[in-house]
Specification:
- This protein is 7% helix and 51% strand.
- The longest helix is centred in the C-terminal third of the chain and has 11 residues, at 331-341.
- The radius of gyration is 34 Å and the shape is rod-shaped.
- The chain has 3 domains: 40-161, no CATH class; 164-288, no CATH class; 292-457, Chondroitinase Ac, Chain A, domain 3 (Sandwich), CATH 2.60.220.
- Strands 15, 16, 19, 20, 22, 23 and 26 form a 7-stranded mixed beta sheet that branches. Strands 27, 29, 30, 31, 33, 34 and 37 form a 7-stranded mixed beta sheet that branches. A 6-stranded mixed beta sheet has the order 7-8-4-14-10-11, with no helix packed on it.
- By secondary structure, the protein is mainly beta.
Length: 473
């Protein structure tokens, strides 16, 4: 890329002091690249002699960057100080010259001298915040044009109230798995920033164009995966949404080890915290979690499992939880169940509910959204209590339209389990009888029935026997 009319490229707000810019040199991040004319086509030469104590600042003159990595610039330095000097060309028409000094947000200027004149750089915390942008604190000084600019800076680290922002980093990149800033197998998005009695959405932040309110995600040019960063005023309240991929749960969400506060039951996946002062990593750890069956409230069931039969619109995130409890029914419904069971003896009545579950950052707290029906049949296996007898067991189901159906099961006499498929969740009854073993559908004698059952599980077909099932011989 090249600029015209004596223009230079400004990258993310910083002048490059060059009329060309090599995009391939960018390592990572979203770039705002602007070709602009920094002033007159009239070019003047000068010498910049820059000395710094502690951290080095970034220097621009009339908007053009003094690049210490330019081969024409001599000198060296480190985090404790340094000295660089060399020729510098910039655009100039007339009058004074504007010199800008930018320090990384965790530092501020404590002393500045230009051509022997001390410059007052004392700033209140509020002034530092207002001049924070792109992770830098900005200072501007107007001086007389000179052939040589001797600049000296001293920086101090911002602490306490002078650390006016919280800076955050996070990564979706595989190379960062296991680190405290990794986000994987889930979605992480900004909901709201509340600051100074004002609420800011992501679009509001973009429109406001306030340097101390920033939220960005970008594609790393080397890994081709996302990473992100944000800068927010200390004391602001940040609200984010974290939603796991299907089959995963958020098992921890930390800010350098600190915990977030999960939202209430009406705000699924919502977390809030007050922005602290400093530099932080955001880490959201989504872990592969199996679907669960909670049968603590059911006397006849000791445990179980559920496997969904296909992709479900109601289960696109998180995992499934089957809740099974005893249920007390009115006499009319009990009579209906017994009539539907025919010559089977009803052993127990159950309320079976299905939930789409999303952890609140830990396994013992979750948002649970009830799902009454599925698009595909789920395979359910239940381990029966020892006092549930019989060797031919069926499920009687009260459908949502008020009718009843018998759902065939496969009985495993060794594990004392039944397996069946269903796409509806409401009141159920377990009914059994004892028959000649040659007629029992068990894992040792499944025959044609088992093939039909498994076909329904994988979506090839489903057979529902109403009122009374046939005995297969």
């Amino acid at each position: 890329m090249s600029a015209t009319n004596n223009g230079k490229f400004r990258v993310d707000g910083t002048a490059t002091n060059s009329s060309t810019y090599n995009i391939a040199s960018v390592v990572a991040g979203p770039l705002n690249i602007e070709a602009e004319n920094f002033g007159s086509a009239n070019r003047v030469d000068a010498v910049v002699d820059y000395t710094y104590t502690n951290e080095r600042a970034e220097i621009t003159i009339n908007g053009e960057y003094f690049d210490v990595n330019n081969p024409a610039i001599g000198g060296s330095g480190n985090q404790n100080g340094g000295h660089f000097t060399g020729p510098f060309e910039y655009g100039y028409d007339s009058g004074n010259v504007t010199i800008a000094i930018d320090t990384l947000f965790i530092f501020r200027l404590s002393a500045l001298t230009i051509n022997g004149t001390p410059i007052n750089v004392t700033r209140t915390p509020a002034q530092l915040l207002q001049n924070t942008r792109q992770q830098m604190i900005h200072y501007e000084v107007t001086v007389a044009k000179a052939d040589t600019y001797v600049i000296s800076t001293t920086t101090v680290q911002n602490e306490g109230e002078y650390m006016t922002v919280g800076n955050f980093l996070w990564s979706y990149m595989d190379v960062d798995k296991g680190t405290d800033d990794y986000v994987g197998h889930g979605q992480f998005e900004l909901v709201n920033v509340h600051y100074n009695n004002t609420d800011y959405s992501l679009q509001d932040i973009i429109d406001a164009d306030l340097g101390y309110l920033e939220w960005n995600e970008w594609i790393n040019n080397e890994t081709h995966q996302k990473e992100g960063g944000a800068m927010l005023p200390a004391g602001a309240v940040l609200t984010v949404r974290l939603i796991p991929d299907a089959g995963y749960q958020l098992t921890s969400f930390t800010i350098n080890g600190g915990e977030f506060e999960a939202g209430d039951d009406d705000h699924v996946g919502i977390y809030t915290f007050t922005v602290p002062r400093g530099n932080f990593h955001l880490g959201a750890h989504f872990t592969k979690v199996n679907n669960k069956v909670d049968a603590d409230g059911a006397d006849a069931i000791t445990s179980g499992s559920i496997k969904l039969g296909g992709a479900e619109e109601s289960m696109q995130v998180g995992t499934a939880k089957l809740g099974i409890t005893n249920v007390d029914l009115e006499p009319a419904k009990i009579s209906n169940f017994k009539e539907a069971a025919g010559d089977y003896s009803v052993k127990t009545y159950l309320d079976i509910k299905l939930f789409n579950t999303i952890y609140k950052g830990k396994a013992n707290e979750s948002w649970d959204e009830q799902v009454d029906e599925l698009q595909h049949k789920a395979k359910i296996t239940l381990k029966l209590a020892d006092d549930v007898d019989g060797n031919d067991i069926v499920i009687v189901h009260e459908k949502h339209d008020g009718t009843y159906e018998i759902i065939e099961t496969v009985f495993d006499p060794v594990k004392h389990t039944i397996t069946f498929v269903t796409d509806s969740f409401s009141n159920y009854a377990i009914a059994s009888r004892t028959i000649d073993t040659k007629n029992v559908k068990t894992t040792d004698n499944v025959g044609i029935y088992f093939i039909a059952l498994m076909s329904s599980i994988i979506g090839l077909g489903a057979v529902k026997l109403f009122r009374k099932k046939a005995t297969l011989k």
